[in-house]
Design brief:
With 552 residues, the chain is α+β, with helices and mostly antiparallel strands. The protein has helices at 42-48, 59-62, 92-95, 107-218, 221-226, 231-234, 257-262; strands at residues 28-30, 35-37, 56-58, 81-83, 88-90, 104-106, 294-300, 306-311, 316-321, 325-330, 336-341, 348-351, 357-360, 364-368, 374-379, 384-390, 394-399, 405-411, 414-419, 437-440, 446-449, 454-457, 463-467, 481-486, 492-496, 501-505, 511-515, 524-529, 535-539, 544-549.
């Protein structure tokens, strides 16, 4: 660009004076030196280096013509050919000597093909790759914006909750101060009454003294003879009460108490999306194939056989097996964190919304509080047995004679809902099955798994759908459903005992796919989804617990 002009300038000669204004427009180019030269400077340029054979061509030709290299074996010749066997450019003299009988092609044609490929690659980068990543960049910026907004909202929630706690603390303080004032007034009234009584006695005593002085001053015989002493009555001190004010005994507040009751901030959920190639269309990337599911960790539970498991919100797992002791295990190490023991072997377990363990032994439902205390919270009606529990506090019951079964919704120890029949009066559940599992979905649906099918009811107990697992399209063994769980998106996960897999179903009963982890799962009897979107499965015979990373 000419500094004295605003429009684009012509290409100038590289040999002319260093003064940009004195340079002439280039007319030719030296392909050997890659130098732009004006006509008057051609001879001067060739004289600058006489050891080279300068290839001078017209400027417009140079821009499209392939610049051939000099031959390394014969410097005076240009390489016109490319030896495919040796993968090097050669000249005609090389072809008749060292490269005789080798397969060769025209170097110019080869370079033109490469140029065409480079042009196509550049066009693809400019039209597909860069716009594709610009789209991804926009999406990531939007994610970041939403993330910041979510954290701002979280911060506001914490602050508002703190203000609410302050208001409640102020209310308690006000309550205690009111109680102090009430006690103060009551106790002061007692002493004020006593002061009033004493003042009355003193007034009577002063009147008696004045009366006596008047009699003495009068010297009247009749008054003296009629005088009766009142000292006995006036000397009687009434019963007096001494009020000792109450004391305030403050209760010790542990340093971590407020932190433990203030609330809980869960860990962030990071959902991984498998890398792919930038697509030319605007369609979304296809769903990740089941082969991408993988087992992240495995550890053994201390049972001969493992029956049930349930995730807590504190990085732990409650488990039960073929004995009366239940064990809470650390998700990362598998070590025992806590235990719970019943008189009878546990039938089912779950973790409620308060992170407390619910257990049933068939007759009674127990709650293990966070302090470790185990107490009954629901007594099963006579003639019925508890078969399964769910975290919203649902109980699955079956009659002793195995002829009827139903789901109860329990609130504060009382039955608030009972679901047994469909709209046509038919039994919703197969009472002849020998094991049952129960889960509440995020949308309020009630999921019941037996040894034959999965039955799903809505939050009002109305029948929605039944899933029979058409496994013979993919597996040889019959469908044997066991544990059931749901994730944050409302997907339903159903353990299949005989087919070594988990059935993934959407909230409306549509089959999504199988989770097999490459055939590494065995005799799955229960499944539980944690807060981080990972699946934990129990293998009955091996007593192994596995953590699975799955993709939506």
């Amino acid at each position: 660009m000419d500094p004295m002009k605003g429009a684009q300038d012509v290409i100038r000669c590289d040999v002319c004076s260093n003064n940009e204004r004195e340079k002439s427009p280039a007319e030719v180019q030296c392909n050997t030196c890659h130098t732009n030269v004006c006509s008057p400077c051609v001879a001067r340029h060739m004289a600058l280096d006489k050891s080279k054979k300068h290839d001078i061509v017209l400027f417009h030709v140079a821009s499209t013509e392939i610049i051939l290299p000099s031959c390394s074996s014969h410097p005076q010749l240009k390489c016109d050919l490319f030896c495919k066997k040796c993968s090097i450019p050669i000249c005609l003299k090389c072809l008749s000597s060292n490269h005789n009988s080798h397969n060769v092609e025209e170097l110019t044609e080869l370079c033109q093909k490469i140029c065409k490929n480079i042009q196509d690659e550049t066009k693809e980068i400019q039209q597909r790759v860069i716009p594709g990543f610009e789209k991804f960049l926009g999406e990531e910026d939007e994610k970041l914006k939403k993330l910041i907004e979510a954290y701002d909202k979280l911060d506001s929630s914490v602050e508002e909750h703190g203000k609410d706690i302050h208001r409640k603390v102020d209310a308690v303080i006000s309550k205690y101060k009111t109680k102090v004032q009430q006690k103060k007034q009551a106790d002061a009234k007692i002493l004020q009454q006593q002061i009033k009584e004493i003042n009355e006695i003193m007034s009577e005593a002063k009147q008696a003294a004045a009366k006596n002085e008047a009699i003495l001053k009068s010297k009247n015989a009749s008054s003296l003879i009629a005088h009766k002493s009142e000292n006995a009555n006036l000397s009687k001190v009434p019963n007096l009460r001494n009020v000792i004010p109450p004391n305030f005994t403050s209760k010790s507040i542990p340093a971590d108490f407020l932190d433990s009751v203030f609330g809980e901030i869960t860990d962030s959920k990071i959902l991984y999306k498998k890398g792919s190639t930038v697509q030319q269309t605007n369609n979304q990337v296809a769903a990740v194939d089941a082969s991408t599911d993988r087992v992240l960790s495995t550890f053994s539970a201390p049972y001969k056989q493992l029956y049930r498991l349930a995730c807590t919100r504190s990085g732990q797992l409650w488990t039960s097996g073929n004995e009366s002791m239940l064990r809470c295990l650390n998700m990362h190490t598998g070590s025992i964190v806590a235990t719970a023991v019943l008189d009878l072997n546990p039938i089912a377990l779950c973790v409620n919304t308060a992170n407390e363990l619910l257990i049933c032994d068939g007759i009674t439902v127990y709650k293990r509080e966070l302090t470790g205390v185990i107490a009954p919270c629901f007594n099963v009606p006579f003639g019925w047995n508890t078969e399964a529990l769910a975290n919203g506090f649902f109980v699955f019951l079956r009659r002793d004679d195995n002829r009827q079964s139903k789901v109860l919704r329990i609130v504060d120890g009382h039955v608030q809902g009972e679901y047994q029949y469909d709209e046509n009066g038919k039994e919703l559940f197969n009472s002849n099955c020998y094991v049952f599992f129960l889960a509440e979905n995020r949308n309020g649906d009630i999921c019941v798994s037996d040894t034959v099918s999965l039955v799903v009811l809505d939050r009002r107990g109305k029948f929605r759908f039944r899933y029979h697992g058409k496994v013979f399209d993919s597996f040889d063994n019959p469908f044997k459903p066991r544990g059931v769980s749901t994730d944050a998106q409302g997907n339903i996960f159903l353990a299949d005992l005989h087919n070594r897999c988990i059935h993934m179903i959407d909230k409306d009963g549509r089959f999504v796919r199988y989770i097999t982890c490459g055939g590494s799962l065995d005799k799955l009897c229960d499944v539980s989804c944690d807060e981080n979107g990972q699946l934990w499965v129990a293998e009955r015979l091996t007593a192994n617990i596995k953590c699975i990373e799955y993709h939506l």
